[in-house]
Amino acid sequence: MSKPNGKKVSMSKILIYLFLSLASLLSLFPFYWMFVMATSPSSAYNTIPPTLKPGNLLVENFQKVLGQVDFFQAMWNSFVICTIVTLVVLFISSLAGFAFAKFKFPGKNVLFMLVLTTMIIPPQLGLIPQFFLVSKAGLLDTLPGVMVVFFLNPLGIFLMRQYVSEAVPDELIEAAKLDGCSNFKIYRSIVLPIILPAFATLGIIVFTAVWGEFLWQFTVLRDPENYTIQVALAQLSNTRNIDFGMIMSGVFWATVPLLVIFLAFNRLFISSITEGSVK
């Protein structure tokens, strides 16, 4: 009986690994095809069957990008915006999540439901009011004007509230209060070290979301010196003869920082996802 069971388990593992390998290849294929197009001439974009072999024009296509837009300045602007927004969102969301998870105050459930309700509102509906407020504040065509609308993140508050509820024991907080710790000291000394995996998860989500956001950045920014990478890449298609190799080269190099960020925090990201199932 043990041998058939052993064979069955072994075969199921093989099938799982085959499925995961296939899913991984399908997930990575768009990145590979983007790299192929970034190294190929523009004519390769419309070839049938599509080209799957990398070319030798990666440097040449990227030089064309540098000739059209200030690529590195746009990358720096995006990096500054995404970094500051991520840090502010992590701070605000973790504080709010801690309060919603561990404190009792009048209207807590109603306020939390209002926060969740904002998640179902399409961001396009707030474009005009946000533009009006940013314009009145004198932040139009500035990097702070791009950042400020992303500081309050309902998804981040929800994730932090759920994580703090499960990961931080109530007894630990009560013991800290008996020792005379203030609420902020409890947050700083006890809660923060525990929720670092959740920080990595939320940080990656926020960083990639703000990096890839286009509509608000395109609406606010006018000066080429303030362009983010998404707005700068949009300028590459404003010519009569679109060079797809040049565009894909710009998109490829704009994607590299996201891959670096994910690989750098990969372990914390995975541990945050799997911690609930392990518990």
UniProtKB/TrEMBL annotation:
Domain ABC transmembrane type-1: 75-265
Major subcellular site: membrane
Membrane-topology descriptor: Multi-pass membrane protein
Keywords, alphabetical: Cell membrane, Membrane, Transmembrane, Transmembrane helix, Transport
Membrane-crossing segments per the record: 74-98, 110-132, 138-159, 190-211, 244-265
Keyword flag Transport: yes
Localization (cell): Cell membrane
Entry's family note: Belongs to the binding-protein-dependent transport system permease family.
Protein name per UniProt: Carbohydrate ABC transporter permease
Organism: Mesobacillus maritimus
